Amino acid sequence: MNIVNILGSPRKNGTSARIARAFIETATTYGATVAEYPLNTMQYRGCQACEGCHTRADRCVLRDDVTAVLDDLYPADIAVFSAPIYFGDTCGQFKTFYDRMWSLIRTDVRDDEENSSRLPPGKIAVLILTHVEGAGAHNDVVERYVLNLELYGFEVRTLIAPGLRLQSNADIDTHLQTATAIARELLRAG
Fold first, then answer.
1. DSSP codes of every residue in 153-174
2. pTM
């Protein structure tokens, strides 16, 4: 099973990254192959709204470090998207990458067509979002990202970790266990 692990946190060992890596560590024990992308270490631009992906090509026309991430989503069975929520949305590193995923949508879809994604069907997304506010504080963010991932054709599993302390060494054992359980469930099924 091929997994793409997209780490949106600006902190290498931030809570969202640690939870995502717990998922990955378990998945690799089941034989998964993983491509990991820590966005904060990569050089890339946000979507330029050039529409080149819909007028001149079937993929994003920008060539930078995100090109490989977008290309790896095509053969991936599972994509792990993890990011902290800052000021009412995901952090800038993740949001900038996520906007580039616009190139994965077909804009030539007829009204009677259901699938607007360029990605092959049957993919699973694991969405991991962390934040310091209490449970339910950012349900709108979660709902928006789930809706978008479903538009791309993903079956979405969410792991939301609310109420975390700001320190990166915060106790997240419960969330690590949940990530491990989701990985076991998905890899056993696959």
1. T-EEEEEEE-S--SSTT---HH
2. 0.94
